[in-house]
Please model this.
Amino acid sequence: MAESPPPTLYLLHGDDEFAAAEFVTRLRDMLGDPSSAALNLHEFSAEGLDFGALAHACSAAPFLARRRLVVVRPASALVADEARRARLEALLADLPTTTALVLIEPRSLTEKPHRHGAKPKRSPLLEWADGHPDSTLVREFSAPQGEAFVRWVRQRCRQLGGEIDPQAAFLLAELVGDEPRLADLELGKLLDFVDRQRPVAVEDVERLTPFGGQSDVFAMVDALGMRDAATALARLHRLLEDESPVYAQVMIVRQFRLLLLAREALDSGLDPRQSLRVHPFVAGKIAAQARHFTLIQLEDIMRRLLAMDMSVKSSQTDDKVALDAFIAGLMG
Model:
């Protein structure tokens, strides 16, 4: 029996962006030799997307590889209006089998209705997937929370070749606020510290991850809220003295995501400290900082962070330069 062709469209949605990123990494690894794989990987931001450039990337033949990988996020922006939806569907209809188009949406596309008895609005992306099951793969990634996240930390530690005590896993989960990517980075440091010769203990987490570079991130965000570019850049550079640009970027993204959640709570008349699943100290700082920003400002910042991430991953910008430009851009 002939083997069925692989999907040409991968629709990844849900709030576990770390799991989605790992899925994309596995697809990239399937491209073959890393040097040629880089030539067959294209990433686009759906915000202000040039559909012509996307269509060209999707239609081009792969170079010294079986397939070409094209990644676009956030997927919902591709169907923000009828014109964009029509252009996307025309592109999907002509996807060659040598292209794997990955659409990533950092929220669930199967949200429950807001009103009792109301039918949930069906995403056009899921409608397309339903109508083309042979060429589409849909995966929803939901970030683990609470006890499930603690179990995830222990499982991830084993995947990285080590062990962690249950209480240490609980403490780490509390400190990183149920953030898989940040937990993964911290686990790497902890396992290197114990040399994978013994389980990571509570004392190790307290020594290496009291709040990571959180104090510098807090100070940087405070400076941004006060429109103090010099202090914001100084705190960023201090953070980069101790941490890699990747770690710094993850910390900054996490901070502004929490600020966005806190601002949404404030605008709804709720106590943001009760809406954030983080350590009480962190929640208090976030709640105070959120008052320096409007919801529109924070949404714009998240879009800028996405654009920065795309630029770094596509090798268009050095990661340290991108972080400097991000801070400078917020001050403009």
In short: The beta strands are 9-13, 41-45, 68-73, 99-105, 136-140. The chain has three domains: 9-110+120-140, 147-208, 214-331. DSSP finds 16 helices and five strands in the chain. The mean pLDDT is 86.
